[in-house]
What we know:
Layout: E1 2-4, E2 7-9, E3 14-17, H1 26-37, E4 50-51, E5 60-61, E6 64-65, E7 68-69, H2 70-77, H3 83-87, H4 91-103, H5 114-127, H6 130-143, H7 158-166, H8 169-184, H9 190-205, E8 214-217, H10 222-255
Antiparallel strand pairs: 1-2, 3-8, 4-5, 6-7
Helix pairs in contact: 1-4, 2-4, 5-6, 5-8, 6-8, 9-10
Amino acid sequence: xxxxxxxxxxxxxxxxxxxxxxxxxxxxxxxxxxxxxxxxxxxxxxxxxxxxxxxxxxxxxxxxxxxxxxxxxxxxxxxxxxxxxxxxxxxxxxxxxxxxxxxxxxxxxxxxxxxxxxxxxxxxxxxxxxxxxxxxxxxxxxxxxxxxxxxxxxxxxxxxxxxxxxxxxxxxxxxxxxxxxxxxxxxxxxxxxxxxxxxxxxxxxxxxxxxxxxxxxxxxxxxxxxxxxxxxxxxxxxxxxxxxxxxxxxxxxxxx
Length: 256
């Protein structure tokens, strides 16, 4: 069994190392999200790239940047953007829109676990109204069928957030991740989402957010490889640093 900096590859479960628990921090999460989403795209088969909505009178293909689609931009400003406005969208404005239209509606600031808050936000940011549906399905999976009503929306209620906070972080994270994996199986974006999932896991496995619990989950294929590379790389860094420290100490003894 390979164990390094808290990464142990043996069972398909989550290892949680408890640190001080803080509320979800959107600024930290956005740093990763911005990297996942990348730059401008204008895919014709992505309905969110149109404004007004695809199929409606006057609908135009406009595009998406940093995950902010023409629909999301139009909803924020109460008007449809031009393609140039999306192309020139700044990271700062994208962050404001993402917080107002996706983070705040799911009450990310009230979720007590940073990794859980990240995954709940990423679900709605990446899948729209399916995201909160998957969160509700996760609550029912862990607390029993019918605990909450399952439906699509862009928001989570106070009661739903309270139930999320009452559950063990690692169990909720695992269960929601599994529901998300199953949702994307067989879809066009399956590979892309699995890569995204690996990156979210890696953020917490390497202590990217140092004031939260470390969460590591082992998956098949690329995720295992990614975590192994991260573990070996960071482990090597600490070994080298330890070796250098010993050399310095030895040198000081010689001088004495």
